[in-house]
Amino acid sequence: MDENKQKRLKAAGWKVGSASEFLGLTPEEAEYVELKLALGSYLRDVRLNRRWTQAQLAERLGSSQSRVAKMESADSSVSLDLLVKALLAAGASTKDVGRVIAAV
Amino acid sequence: MDENKQKRLKAAGWKVGSASEFLGLTPEEAEYVELKLALGSYLRDVRLNRRWTQAQLAERLGSSQSRVAKMESADSSVSLDLLVKALLAAGASTKDVGRVIAAV
DNA sequence: CTATTGTATGTCGCATCTGACATATTGCCA
DNA sequence: TGGCAATATGTCAGATGCGACATACAATAG
Question: pLDDT tens, A21-59?
Fold first, then answer.
């Protein structure tokens, strides 16, 4: 199986190999997942450019290392709200965020 | 008081006239509120262009008229997740959404 | 005026998301 | 190899968001 496909299904909260592997993902749902993945990996970029660890970023956000890890991987337990708030708090601008989203 | 300021504070979940009127809104929080307001009013634009009522849009979203009203006014009980999902379901593209966000 | 249609506001029970914590895994250096 | 720092994964109780409903307000037609 394609590695990207695995990441996407995982982000959507599905088990790779489950029966609903290719089912039930409407185009809008798929776009939503792509969007979260893009923002998550952009958050990682921002963090790495600042040379912060996940724990350091977490402290600035008032969150925890484990949640930052989940944000970056666009875990299904992470909301767009949290991702966007984290990006803004990490120093990204709305312009940056918008560009990332528009590029999905 | 400036009308826009009122809308923004209201969206942030504050009572206009409360003691914390000009307090506690960090730049990132303000940006986040602006973002929701922009998406909410864009959702209204999309809906009106399609000549739908809030109730009709709600039906397509599997939601309720009252929640659509809250989305459009960027009520504090509405998440970015819901706004973005609603926009995508209403036919907006990620490119559109990204542009709106970048323009905040 | 008074229906009717559309929109706004307030509340509630249930569902999902949150930070925190424990623990597993990875990567790197001596 | 062992040890340490960084990251990933799983779980939980409390916080927040959700659709639904009731009801209030606004605008327009008859």
Answer: 555 578 888 999 999 999 999 999 999 999 999 999 999
DSSP character string of A56-91: HHHHHHT--HHHHHHHHTT-TT--HHHHHHHHHHTT
Is strand D in 7 Å reach of the CB of B73? no
Check residues B77 and B28 and name the one with the higher pLDDT.
B77
The total of structural domains in chain B comes to 1
Is A19 part of a structural domain of the chain? Answer: no
Range of the domain at B96: 25-102
Is residue A37 within 8 A of residue A66, CB to CB? The reply is no
Q: Could you read off the pLDDT of B33-45 as tens digits, one per residue?
A: 999 999 999 999 9
Q: Domain for residue B49, yes or no?
A: yes
Closest C1' nucleotide to A68's CA: D7
Q: How far is the CA of A69 from the C1' of C24 (A)?
A: 14
CB contact under 8 A, A104 and B98: yes
